[in-house]
Amino acid sequence: PHVLQIHPAHALGLYELYTDDRQILYVDEAVTTLVAGDLIEAHNLHNMTEARLKILGAVKPGDLPLNLALKRVKGNGKRVVAVFSDPDCPFCRKLEKELSSITDVTVYTFLYPIASLHPDAPERSHWIACSKDPEKAWEDYQLRNIEPIHHECQDQLEEVQNLGEKYRISGTPTLVFADGEVVPGALPRAELEKALGPH
């Protein structure tokens, strides 16, 4: 891994090293000792490393170019989440099933195929992006297993790939909530509702 940022850790005279694979390592001032693992405050069991990772990995609201995403509005659409998703990822399908039962949300889906895991995903993403109704094609494939019709167009998948690399999105699904928190994985409905906030 490459170190992206160095900050004082406010514990034991250590410095935190934030790496390009979204991890924090710690080093002493003399750079003689490297510590891998979580720093936890003993008096209240607060995980300082986890708290810093949330801050360092956050995406500033408004920084995501939402014009590159599929947009689905349910109910009043007041709550917002962006999802980097691969059409052939089984965990993405699981997340889509959970999202389908949630109301009053706007979901921005960035088609983010990971070809090394799902060789057909880039082509399928292209067909979804180029369909007459990409949002419907996405839901049809994710929720009903209906293959997208083969259409050709100039898609924006390369721009989305670059965006994902910029924010070090290494797996799917990866969610970005309105407060900037980045959460990897398919969350169950209760956790989604909590992260999305009130209607």
UniProtKB/TrEMBL annotation:
CDD domains: DsbA_DsbC_DsbG. Coiled coil: none annotated. InterPro entries: DiS-bond_Isoase_DsbC/G, DiS-bond_isomerase_DsbC/G_N, Thiol:disulfide_interchange, Thioredoxin-like_fold, Thioredoxin-like_sf, Thioredoxin_domain. Residues 59-199 form the Thioredoxin domain. This is Thiol:disulfide interchange protein DsbC.
